Amino acid sequence: MNRLPSETRATMLPISGTLSLVLPAYNEAANLEAVVRRALEVLPALVEDFEVVIVDDGSRDGTSQIADRLAASDPRVRVVHHETNRGYGAALRSGFAAARGDLIMFMDADQQFDPADFAHLAPFVPYADIVAGYRVKRRDPWIRLVYAAIFNAAMRLLFGITVRDIDCASKVLRGDLVRALHLTMNGALVNTELLVKAQRAGATIVEVGVRHYPRLSGEPSGGSVRVIRRAVCEVAQLWWQLLWYQPPRGVGRGRPQPRSSQLVRAGVMVGLGATALYWLWRRFAGGRPTQER
């Protein structure tokens, strides 16, 4: 990917318009305040105007009270509450619905991303509908890295997504594009849904490397059995939904991806699967010589 010269980047900051930073938070009492304080510190120099939208997704550890206190102390901070835990996708969708900005950036509230990295993403905003961060060096346990590699490969195969780090929680999106896509996933598959529907609508996507930090406090939920099981169910649901999805017109700057591409990929996978099964049958069953009596 070609990067803009550093002198060009410097002259493009601060970005004009309003940025909504959406922070989904579930049991992040140990991390939320530090993330919000950091955003309030760095964003004034990076964007003309901004707001921070915290989505408390039914937390039970004091996250809700911390979010309300932060909102009461600064008018640039707003809070959306879920009475019960609805899932990562539902929290993002609530944040997108509440966001007022021309641009929407979302990040996890676990201190594994730095709001200051908006400086790396912002120069590409005028040239792309989505600026997608990818973790240059992912700081997660090895088992999560294995899950991520399998997941990314499967999503590319099933949905034709070209982004290298699909679930990276550091993306900047055009606000009108996000509002037009009609997202429905409640779980971790929301990033896949966002990207594939955006591609179907002709959105242009640029990838930029961002920093990733180890989680110092709190418990990650993305690798839990419950989350993985829900994601598998949502894959089937999303694949079926996309067969009938009619993307909004005129919201992307690129060439829309036709629905037929999904059917072609499905046909190729069915063909490869049938070929593999036939080979296995011939190898281990059909090729055995019969014994004479």
Description:
- The protein has 293 residues and is an alpha/beta fold.
- It is 42% helix and 17% strand.
- It has helices spanning 6-11, 32-42, 63-73, 88-98, 118-121, 142-159, 175-180, 190-200, 225-243, 260-286, and strands spanning 15-25, 47-57, 77-82, 103-107, 130-135, 170-174, 205-210.
- It has a 7-stranded mixed β-sheet with strand order 3-2-1-4-6-5-7.
- Residues 1-11 have low confidence and may be disordered.
Q: How many individual helices? A: 10
Ranges where pLDDT stays below 50 over 5 or more residues in a row are 1-11
Main pleated-sheet profile = 7 strands, mixed
How far do the termini sit from each other? Answer: 69 Å
Structural class: alpha/beta
Order of helices and strands: HEHEHEHEHEHEHHEHH
Apparent shape: globular
Number of DSSP strands? 7
Task: Name its key features.
293 residues, alpha/beta, 7 strands, 17% strand, disordered N terminus
What can be said about this structure in brief?
The chain has 293 residues and is of the alpha/beta class.
SSE layout and pairing:
Layout: H1 6-11, E1 15-25, H2 32-42, E2 47-57, H3 63-73, E3 77-82, H4 88-98, E4 103-107, H5 118-121, E5 130-135, H6 142-159, E6 170-174, H7 175-180, H8 190-200, E7 205-210, H9 225-243, H10 260-286
